[in-house]
Amino acid sequence: MIIVTPTYNRRQELPNLVASLEKQTCQDFTWLVIDDGSTDGTAEYLKDLQKNSLLDIEYYYQPNQGKAIAYNQAFQHMPVDEVHLVVDSDDELLPNAVATFYEDLQQIPQQIGLVYPKTIAGEPTKWLPNKVQAVNIMDIRFKYGLKIETCIVLKNQYIGDFRFPTTEGETFCSEELFYNALINKGTFKPCATEVYRYKYLADGLTSNLFTMQKNNPHNTRLLFQDRQKYVQQNLKGPQRFLELIKVRLNKIAFNLVQKDGSALSEADLRDWLLMPAAIILKQIRYHK
């Protein structure tokens, strides 16, 4: 099992993650760390840890290119016959997590992986109904309406040749592109066990999502394109109609903050009908 951690200037957060890995009741894993150009002593900390910790640590450095490109590098270092999950540098695994992953993997010979809810200590967790035994990652949000963080354990054989796009000048790309690419590979088994705890940081990707989208226009347009494709192919009836409207509205609002004139040049009649709502959405998301 490979635990992947892309990290950028999280030296102060890493010891908490390290402690959670050292407390695992099952130590049958490799911790693969991709350092995305950190300048805060992360490299020195991890190289020292390689010498002094009992953890099996692989460490690689790359110039700052963003989490998605760090994930691309991780793909290159993971055996195809293994499984992996991503644990962010400011999060932690509960002591039974790795043992739970191995136990649950034995129950899914025909599925491509497992998916668990990420939790925040002391807060209630929403999750799928027990009757749901197979999902793709996109379904969790768009079919079941759960806008939650998830811990995903994936069999590496299903990564295939997928790689996040490398776009000059852009350092953010949504992981949703990967989840959409996995839909045709198979399904994940949802598991309710608490295994992963997370927290939001003021300078983290999640809390700065719309700023990142604004500053990475090419990759963000790929996201909207992929999301529209998912909705068209996987949803039906009123739900499909509503989500297509949302995608279009998001795209218009995003285009309105770009300086290339795309909001007007790409607009058709449907866009003009949605323009008032898009202007309001733009103000809410991109001008905080």
Automatic annotation (TrEMBL):
The record's annotation in SUPFAM superfamilies points to:
Nucleotide-diphospho-sugar transferases
* UniProt xrefs under Gene3D superfamilies: Spore Coat Polysaccharide Biosynthesis Protein SpsA, Chain A
Organism domain of life: Bacteria
Q: Which GO terms describe its molecular function?
A: hexosyltransferase activity
| Domain Glycosyltransferase 2-like, chain residue ranges per copy | 3-127
Q: Pfam families of this UniProt entry?
A: Glycos_transf_2
Looking up InterPro entries in the UniProt record yields: Glyco_trans_2-like, Nucleotide-diphossugar_trans
Name the chain's protein. Glycosyltransferase 2-like domain-containing protein
